[in-house]
Design goal:
The chain has 14 helices and six strands. It is α/β, with parallel strands linked by helices and 307 residues long. It folds into two domains: 230 residues, Rossmann fold (3-Layer(aba) Sandwich), CATH 3.40.50.300; 63 residues, Histone, subunit A, CATH 1.10.20. Strands 3-2-4-1-5-6 form a six-stranded parallel β-sheet, sandwiched between helices. Helix 2 links the parallel strand 2 and strand 3. The longest helix is centred in the C-terminal third of the chain and has 24 residues. 33% of the residues are buried.
């Protein structure tokens, strides 16, 4: 499998700083795993690396689509995989950096294959749910797919039905579909998590919200709107950007919008932290993530262990 390094963590945790320092030390390039930084023209509100930083270290998958376009985990997996293979051919260990956990998960674990369910199967299961109850269906799931049932709450109606649907449609349990997907994995990763104390993280988010305004965030959004992009465009509908549209379009006070932007960003960071608690990492860094010497030493040891 092709080796790579990931730097993950909530927004404003210091991922980009660490990525730049590591990339210089390891003489490699950075692949952004950020669902917002793919959009052109929105540099400030998506906290992209500066022009100088991108000149110092080459970055990939930044500013690659228009604000009106959608981008998915599947497309990221395809785009990032192509870059990773190219860097591997050059003898470099790619550095994937970003806080969109689903993108990194898709890259490392794969995406669950699309399975079309016959509407009749779905209808029959829902009729059984009404007649027999969820406990009976969960017991059936536990019999047909014990590995999946162990991970599913007995009250999780949606996932119980999904497990039974997939089994009825394919004759295979979901856990077996996942096992086959895992067998096709192309990459192995040294995963780094930056996980600063919550109070420090929130303080950084609040400070960054102010810095973005000072850097010209409102002018940037106005410019994109003047280009003809609709306010409902995916690129403008992200946290840290959409909160200011009422100020620009409906005269809501800037103070109210700024408070809301910081609040929504803190909430987003909290959801990210919850996501990361359920994942395993090779190295977790706290308040000061930039101990480069220690980190590089651990990465070098990991690389040697692969041979």
């Amino acid at each position: 499998m092709i080796p790579l390094i990931t730097i993950e963590g909530p927004t404003a945790s210091g991922k980009s700083d660490l990525a730049l320092k590591l990339a210089r030390e390891l003489e490699t390039e950075i692949i952004s795993a950020d669902s917002r930084q793919v959009y052109r023209y929105l540099d400030i509100c998506t906290a992209k690396p500066s022009t100088a930083e991108m000149k110092a270290v080459r970055h990939h998958l930044i500013s690659i689509i228009e604000p009106s376009e959608s981008y998915s985990a599947g497309r990221f997996k395809s785009d990032a995989s192509e870059v990773i293979r190219d860097l591997h051919r050059q003898g470099k260990v790619p550095l994937v950096c970003g806080g969109t956990g689903l993108y990194v998960e898709a890259l490392l674990q794969g995406l669950f294959p699309q399975i079309d369910i016959d509407p009749e199967i779905r209808k029959r299961l829902r009729e059984r749910l009404k007649k027999e109850g969820l406990d009976i269906l969960y017991a059936e799931l536990a019999e047909r797919d014990p590995a999946f049932a162990e991970k599913v709450s007995s009250n999780d109606r949606q996932r119980i039905l999904r497990g039974l649907e997939v089994f009825a449609a394919t004759g295979l349990p979901i856990s077996e579909h996942w096992r086959r997907q895992q067998a096709e994995r192309e990459f192995t990763a040294f995963r780094i998590l930056i996980n600063p104390p919550r109070e420090q993280l929130y303080a950084r988010i609040n400070a960054r919200t102010e810095r973005m305004l000072e850097a010209g965030l409102l002018s940037e959004i106005t410019s994109v709107l003047k280009m003809g992009f609709d306010a409902s465009s995916p690129g403008l509908n992200s946290v840290g950007c959409k909160e200011y549209l009422p100020h620009l379009l409906d005269s809501v006070s800037l103070q109210d919008c700024s408070v809301l932007a910081a609040q929504h960003t803190r909430n987003y960071a909290k959801r990210q932290c919850t996501w990361y608690r359920k994942r395993k990492f090779d190295l977790t860094l706290g308040a000061d993530p930039c101990n480069i010497l220690k980190t590089v030493t651990l990465i070098r040891a990991w690389q040697k262990s692969l041979h």
